[in-house]
Design brief:
This protein is of the alpha/beta class and about 475 residues long. The chain has 15 helices and 23 strands. It has a seven-stranded mixed beta sheet with strand order 15-16-17-14-13-19-20, with helices on both faces. Strands 10-9-8-11-12-22 form a six-stranded mixed beta sheet, with helices on both faces. 2-aminohexanedioic acid binds next to loops. Its EC number is 1.2.1.79.
Length: about 475
């Protein structure tokens, strides 16, 4: 990283300083180090961005989809070629390891490429008509001006998987990223605009919740795609419903990994560790609950605790580091409070749980990777902490294990470890989640398949793959008849 980056807004094709309060993004490893700084957008900036998106709308919708896609492909090449530099910036700003930061930038490029080729895919459907001389076509149109609100934890991949389908399907966008990660938002926006997006097609406003509220409540917004906390998602969804605006909200998870007796134990240990501690547990798909069947529980929990205690926690830009800090001091305090209440509710800390009072980790927003065993329900079993904390329970058998997975208001993802195809199929039938992994960790999402949760993890159409078209277009059913055939 070289120097402090200036935070600016992109409105109607012009990069401008925001007129609002100051905003700073810090390095969570060394919070006295400023990564980017500038000023938030004002409500007038939000108005300007929405107006610009409204004006650009017709021209962009009338641009052929292959041409819109070509711009995404060009942006993908820029993102890919900057993977090392931007990956390091991502790591510095967000705190995930360098390998994960670089991997995420490459993933954003892959997502842009996937949607860049959308024009080559099916554009609608044709049905037979019960009447002679008629066909029924189902065609697709953009919904209009989309508000995109994204979280801190995937500063470039989640924005890419919302903005790319929005744009390729002919919508214009006003994007508000989490104010903790403005740098990567500026990088992605530059890649897209430098590829040749017309002014106003993509606008970037940076700020905290007042900017988000102004955006989602703006009369010029036709649809809202949101990923973030359950509380904010529900507030946005109810405000949008009152205005009749469609919402796609991807919210909380309390994702379980189930390790059954017959699992490949070594592989399950590796995968549970990745699910729980990659990105410092800050993924809505992270593994935050573990269910182990009784017969293997002692052995599994002992080995898991030993591996967790041995994780290299530290500066995520160091090659050897396996886990970096969480995003803010507030997040750090909230996670430790959650561990504290688990202990007071009878939880047994198998490893971790302690703050770093001394040494190089004491100043950063670090949380020790933690495994807490429960023998009965506790808040940590149901409430998302969004950190490197795994709550474990034992189950007598497969049925009880799957019942414990479903013991959650959320249903985003789950991982089941077994070598028995009958048990795997039972999981497919019984585990109520949007994304099920058999013998792999609970996180991960390929761009060409649907992503999103069951139960209270999500609202509205799923993201990615062909599912994204459901949200970013509406259909027109066309009853198409000619006149009488001419003689
Ligand atoms: C992943 O599992 O790689 O906010 C993606 C999140 C999810 C994305 C998860 N929306 O963590």
């Amino acid at each position: 990283m070289t120097g402090v980056v200036e935070i600016r807004q992109l409105i109607d094709g012009h990069w401008r300083d925001g007129g609002g309060d100051s905003v700073t993004s810090l390095n969570p490893t060394r919070p006295n180090e400023v990564v980017a700084e500038g000023n938030c957008a004002t409500l007038a900036d939000v108005d300007g961005a929405v107006a610009a998106a409204g004006e650009a709308r017709a021209g962009w919708a009338n641009t052929p989809i292959h041409q819109r896609g070509a711009l995404l492909l060009e942006a993908a090449a820029v993102v890919e070629s900057n993977a090392l530099a931007w990956g390091l910036e991502l790591t510095t700003e967000e705190g995930k390891t360098k390998a994960e930061g670089i991997g995420e930038v490459r993933r954003a490029a892959q997502i842009l490429r996937y949607y860049g080729n959308e024009g080559d895919r099916q554009a609608g459907e044709i049905f037979a008509s019960p009447r002679a001389g008629e066909q029924i076509l189902v065609t697709r149109k953009p919904v209009g001006v989309v508000a995109v609100i994204t979280p801190f934890n995937f500063p470039i991949a989640i924005p890419a998987w919302k903005i790319a389908p929005a744009l390729v399907h002919g919508n214009t966008v006003v994007w508000k990223p989490a104010s903790t990660v403005p740098l990567l938002a500026i990088r992605l926006t530059e890649a897209l605009t430098n590829a040749g997006l017309p002014a106003g097609v993509l606008n970037l406003v940076i700020g905290d919740s007042p900017v988000g509220e102004a955006l989602v409540n703006h009369a010029g917004i036709d649809a809202i795609s949101f990923t973030g906390s359950t509380g904010v998602g529900r507030r946005i969804a109810s405000a949008a419903a009152a205005r009749g605006v469609p919402v796609q909200a991807e919210m909380g998870g309390k994702n379980a990994a189930v390790v059954l007796d017959d699992a490949d134990i070594d592989m399950a240990l590796d995968q549970v560790m990745l699910g729980a501690f990659r990105s410092t547990g800050q993924k809505c798909t992270a593994t935050s609950r573990l269910i182990v069947t009784e017969r293997i529980a002692d052995r599994f929990l002992a080995e898991l605790s030993a591996r967790t205690a041995a994780l290299a926690v530290g500066d995520p830009t160091d090659e050897a580091t396996q886990m970096g800090p969480v995003i803010t001091g507030m997040a750090q305090r909230g996670i430790y409070a959650g561990i504290g209440s688990a202990i007071s509710q009878g939880g047994d800390v198998l490893t971790g749980g302690h703050p770093y009072f001394k040494g190089p980790l004491a100043d950063g927003f670090f949380v020790a990777p933690t495994v807490v065993e429960l023998t009965a329900h506790a808040d940590i079993w149901s409430q998302e902490l969004f950190g490197p904390v795994l709550a474990a329970r034992r189950a007598a058998d497969t049925d009880e294990a799957f019942a414990l997975v479903n013991d959650s208001e959320f249903g985003l993802s789950a991982a089941v470890f077994t070598q028995d195809v009958t048990r795997a199929l039972q999981a497919v039938d019984q585990v109520d989640v949007g994304v099920l992994h058999v013998n792999s960790e609970s996180a991960g999402a390929d761009p060409h398949v649907p992503f999103g949760g069951a139960k209270k993890s999500g609202l509205g159409p799923k993201e990615q793959g062909s599912a994204s078209r459901e949200f970013y277009t509406h259909t027109t059913t066309v009853y198409l008849r000619g006149g009488k055939p001419q003689p």
